[in-house]
Write a structure and sequence with these properties.
6-stranded mixed beta sheet; 429 residues; 12 helices; alpha+beta
Length: 429
Amino acid sequence: MAAGRSKKMKMNKINNFHGSTATDIEDRSCYVLTNFSQILKQILIGLPVKSLNSCARVCKIWNDAVQKIKKLRCPYYWNYFEGEEESPDSQKLLLESIQLTIENLPIEPETMLVYYTSVLLDTTCTSATVSTKSRSKRKIQKECSDVSEFFQNLLPRSCQTTAVAADGIIGTSSSLRKTKEFENKCALSFICFAKQSTFSFHSIQLDVKQGTKLGELWNSNEETSFSNFIPPEETVKSVLFFSDDVTCPQELGFALYKEYNQPLIAGGFVDSLVFPSLLHDINHKHDLPTICCVALCGETVKIASIIIRDDVCDKTDVEACMKELKSHDLPEERSFAFMFACVGRGENHYGEADVESMMFRKFFPKTPLLGLFGNGEVGFKYPLPPIVSKEIDGTELHDFVNDSRRYLTRHPPKLYHAYTTVLCLVSLP
């Protein structure tokens, strides 16, 4: 019996020790996390933005720590996803990977650009992001009509998403370890941006009739009607231009070029495009635009671009083009790039895959590259070379050639191309 009592007393001491230790640890943890900001920061720094927002509601100290972490993060995030051709559930696995990534984004997306291969156009997607109207937090499965709607349902309602489908796409992994070109494969890439004070994005959505009407104004003295899309105080540096209608007039690009003080216009003709934010409006469900533009604005944003011509067909010539882009000396720490290539290029053109994208990575290892293979490319070299005044017998060929801004407005650069690749490099402040 003495042995039994001794054992019982020993167990009580252990239980009491464990109980008091747990309370002690909890109290000390709270003390440490509210009084040692560096420790709190190290714990919170790796959390996705959704978890950070939850932590911000704990107390003022935690909220301050969360806001500091958000400010230190890169204002944009990117990734790509590739389906496994051997797997019968390839598209399902691809969508699951996308959903997991979007739900764990490190930033709060305000603008998103999505490029996906046309193979995914007929994919019916299912997401588990729509809550029921009941008080419980149980979520239901929602079937989406396409990938763009699937994406929009994963994102905040305020996020402006442009989704473009093409025969092929280009994507870079979030780790910057891989950049790949996907031609006629099941793949998707995206880049998203958090709200910033130093740059912003604005959408322009038009149908062909609107585009034609505006295009007719570029060479006239009449005012165009783009002021409704972008606030007049914004400085437009680049306009990403996409259309799924090959009859879209080049003059529309000229009108954008004139209206917004000669920014870079770049993009391509694609299989399908949509602003998924319109899908929330039932009146626009079957009346989506055929011309979608995304304007990048910011006084201190820097832009450069090149065109890889149709006669460039080996690595040496591609390398020379990349050296030209590199010569603009844009900062690479906060930069990203877009590649708009012809479907006639890529592996069939070079005899091996990823030639242009890999050469880009050689010169820009810290810069994510995204884009598409389209049915026509839009763009020009930027900045344009200086205008040289030509004279014949002392008389200038153009009476306004010395006014370069006026000259370029009257003589915009060629925008539409075939069998080329347009590469655009963007550096944020």
